[in-house]
Description:
Elements: E1 19-24, H1 28-40, E2 43-49, H2 52-60, E3 67-71, H3 82-87, E4 96-101, H4 109-112, E5 117-119, H5 124-133, E6 143-144
Amino acid sequence: MSASKPANVEKAVRPASLGRVLLVEDDTVLALALEDALLRGGADEVVICQTMKATMAELDKREKLDAIVIDVHLADRDDGWALAELVTLLGPKRPRIAFSTGSPGDIPAQIAELGPIFEKPYDPERLVEVLASGRKRGLFARLLR
């Protein structure tokens, strides 16, 4: 007689890979919460940069990035959204972009079209869901909570 699996045993499902994620966030507590959610959600690696200078040094390494989460207001710069413009220059296979901010209105409209906007405070799991889905949304649907 062959053994069969009980009907109620579920197969473990590994989340889809989010790849290598650059997290630009100067709030240490939020950065750690987002890092944890991203790793549990399938990120292979999360690189945290707390300043524009550290972010530019990381981008200068030219290592492949699959996604970048950008805090719009950093301690050393108030225009973190400008990183999105720079990221678009990384070629046709640019990383997915998401914005993290308490002031969504501060992001110029043409920049806001580059990725979803998460208004602080937000659920880190929602960020993971949106990055994993990879789907494009309309401008007004991008303001997520």
